[in-house]
Structures are given as structure tokens and as C-alpha cells.
Specification:
By secondary structure, the protein is α/β, with parallel strands linked by helices. It has 2 helices and 7 strands. A hairpin with a 2-residue loop joins strand 1 and strand 2. 38% of the residues are buried.
């Protein structure tokens, strides 16, 4: 185990796997300023599995939020295949949760970091269809996919409680 951050973490080959669930089961959060656990070395692409029922306008809206904070993304595309589940190196995938995902969670994000460099290699956002259109959920999960930890500042995008969160992005600009 590498560490626990509102979730679980484990190693898998050359990647370390870091999970973040929203809302969290257990929460270790940044004190002071928001903290970024890892960063992308290359600009990630985004692949949206059609089965998630996440509208492309919501993905584009979430990407615009992070672009306004200075982050870049490659292309955003929808994957119509039912086998769409696993992230490839260089991408953030948005897919359905795996079995065992608690219905009380809106979404979860798993990032895979290179064991030697610590750079994010790929990320997987799992989201339930009923939360796909909800404000801030996708923006928050993209924040985790970019390496950001939970931050308990009221109205902040990375707040672990959806009801207390907001669109404040102070401290997370690139």
C-alpha cells in the first residue's frame, strides 16, 4: 500500500494506483492550501464511454472549467463500444463504476502514476448515470484526475462534500 486518501491505493506493475471517491468514505485532506499529489507529464486526452450517459456538453463544460485554471487537454471523444472500461496511457477515461461501487457515492477517480517518476500516466473516472448531469461532480472528478486532493474550504471545487462545495478554484491554478 502506498497511502490512503479518501480511498485505497495499491501498486500494479509499473504504475501506482490512487483512488478517490466522491463523497469520500474516509478523508485525509489538505490543510492550508490545496495540494496536488501528482501531475501529468504529457497533456491527457479524454475518452467518454457511451454507457455512462454523460452528455458531451457536460464533459466540455468541465474541461472549460479546468482550462480556465490553466490546464490543457487533448481531444475529447466518445467511445461507443461496450468494452470501454480501462484507461489507456495518456488518457482520462470516464466510465461506469465497477461492481461493488456503493450507491451512496456519486463518482470515484483512480489515477495511475509511474512508480519511478511519480507522473500521472492515466486516470479513470467512474460515475453513475444519475449523477452525470449534476453540477460540479465531473469538474471535481477531473480535479482528482489532475492529481488534486480534497480540500475542506467551503465552496471550493475540491471540497469532499458536494453540498458544501462550489466553483472556487483558489490555489489550484496551474
Amino acid at each position: 500500500m502506498l497511502f490512503i486518501l479518501s480511498c485505497t491505493a495499491a501498486t500494479g506493475g509499473e504504475y501506482a494506483i490512487l483512488n478517490a471517491r466522491y463523497p469520500p468514505v474516509l478523508d485525509i485532506f489538505a490543510v492550508g492550501n490545496p495540494q496536488q499529489k501528482a501531475k501529468w507529464k504529457a497533456t491527457p486526452a479524454i475518452r467518454v464511454c457511451a454507457s455512462t450517459e454523460v452528455p458531451m456538453y457536460r464533459v466540455q463544460q468541465a474541461v472549460r472549467y479546468w482550462k480556465a485554471a490553466g490546464y490543457d487537454f487533448q481531444d475529447i471523444r466518445r467511445d461507443p463500444f461496450s468494452t470501454c472500461m480501462n484507461a489507456r496511457p495518456g488518457e482520462i477515461i470516464i466510465t461506469l463504476p465497477e461492481t461493488g461501487f456503493a450507491d451512496s457515492h456519486m463518482a470515484s477517480t483512480r489515477i495511475y502514476t509511474h512508480t519511478e517518476t511519480g507522473d500521472i500516466v492515466k486516470a479513470k473516472i467512474c460515475i453513475l448515470p444519475k449523477h452525470a448531469r449534476k453540477d460540479r461532480v465531473l469538474e471535481h472528478e477531473l480535479g482528482h484526475a489532475l492529481g488534486w486532493m480534497h480540500y475542506r474550504q467551503k465552496f471550493h471545487i475540491m471540497h469532499p462534500n458536494w453540498y458544501l462545495g462550489g466553483y472556487d478554484r483558489s490555489g489550484i491554478r496551474k
